[in-house]
Design brief:
heterodimer; A: alpha/beta; two-stranded parallel sheet; 17 helices; flat; B: alpha/beta; Rossmann fold; three-stranded parallel β-sheet; 6 strands
Chain lengths: ~475, ~110
Amino acid sequence: MLRASAACEAGGIPSSSLVCEGFIRQAATTSVGLGMPNLPVARVPGHVGVQSNEELGRNILEVTVERVIANLTCEPAQAGEPLEPRPREVVFKGDFDAVNRCFYENEWSDGLPIVPPTREKVEAFFAFTDRGPDEVLGVLLPDNRAATVWSIAVNGVMAGCRPEYMPILVALIEAMADPRYGVEHSGNTPGGETLIILNGPIVKQLGFNYTQGALRDGFLPNTSVGRFWRLYLRNVAGFLPHKNDKATFGNTWRVVLAENEEALAKISWEPNSVEMGFNAGDNTVTIARYTGSSALSSVSGSTPEQVLPILADGVLKQTLWTIVFTVGLTMGTLRPLLVLSPILAETIARRGWSKADVKRYLFEHCRIPAWEFERQLRDWSQKPIWNLAEEARLGHIPKVFHESDDPNRMVPIVFKPADFMIAVTGDVLRHNAHVFAHNGALGYPVGKRIRLPEGWERRLAELGK
Amino acid sequence: MFNGGTERQYQVFWPRSPRQMQLRSLAPRLKTLEGKTVAQLWDFLFRGDQVFALIEEGLKARFPGVRFVSWREFGNTHGADEREVVARLPQRFKELGVDAAISGMGC
């Protein structure tokens, strides 16, 4: 919304942005990143989502309209450029506690103690990349800061990463900067959190946990790389709570989910990296943002026909309101993720079912009545402009969403079977699953190959790995 | 952590990196909205269809000659194709004779 306003202003068209009362501070910080700190906003009292038509009318006509007129006809105050340190500037000298106090007070840490990013610590990370410190991997909204390799190393040190994790950190920030991911949406109110999936020989080389407790803290690589992601979102992209991060509740960062490729090889299922377009055996990261997740406990049965209905039911129930990313807010960008424990995947695969077969099953069985889908789109989200018949007629959505006018017809929750994602990890001998509800285009799955430096094996050997 | 009874001192780097966007000027404001054409830009969220109708009502009461270009002309400014929709705005504004824009809903 503010990005559209900034584009108007840059093109010589004066703008006024309509901002609900609780979002004024976010608008102010986002405007700084857009290079227009004085971008004018018109306050909408309270929140429109809980107002009657009469209250909404009174608020807009008595408060907002006056501000819109002023924004479009009165010159706003000039804005100054905020002063900041230079790149690679030493910003503080002090003992461990003082450094941590400084970083916390400047909103550079997540509240846990950080490892002080000293020259010695930061430079050690450059032993594990061929990239130069000033190389820029992209520019990250909303703060509009350069994603430099130097800043990756600094935040990696702070998170407690070891230097040899650097190739993974670089790949992660390449993914964060990929426009398909949509990092600029990371402060939206559902407060979703990114999940990082790791594939390839690097999982074992660097000692990532990929068995029991795969999503639990307690394993240095999984935990510190997950923490790095959130620190980088804070410090370089600019997502700070009470400012650009407007998560109503939010989650803490997630530890890295490493796939169990031994289990996958045993059942001849391709790893997630292949789903993302890479070769089996490549070292890759995949990122996507999820609004929540839930465990499916004791998915019991000895055949696919017995366990798949339980899994489909779990995927459907976890998806909830996020169907607005299938039809509505965006079209066809919902990618629910189903994580299976190895023994569960084996139970399905031993009867000859491939991953693609499972996805087809989910597509056919994760369905809801059309009236229920439209209730979410129109009534519950207060967006009366959407309906399945019209979107199908316009060719915006597949025909499967409107094969008749029967409101009880069953419609899918995604555009196509391949929109479902499946990963295999966790306790090898426990028949549980885990479902993640996806945040659509506001955190779309993006994969990147991890580029290892020349002499990687030698460099690891020097560390005794 | 400790060095000869004195706690170790650290010299630490800034964890951020430079902003890439220079400070930019806003567009000149209009003298009046009378006789002007105002574009409505919407992210298809939070009752914007109702809010824009109310704003039209309020502005027309003050400036009877103001005209509006509906949000329907521009598409969703917060959808998966946000970048394309926003990039097309200057050209669309020229075609439609737009003088000012109202963009919602930040909620």
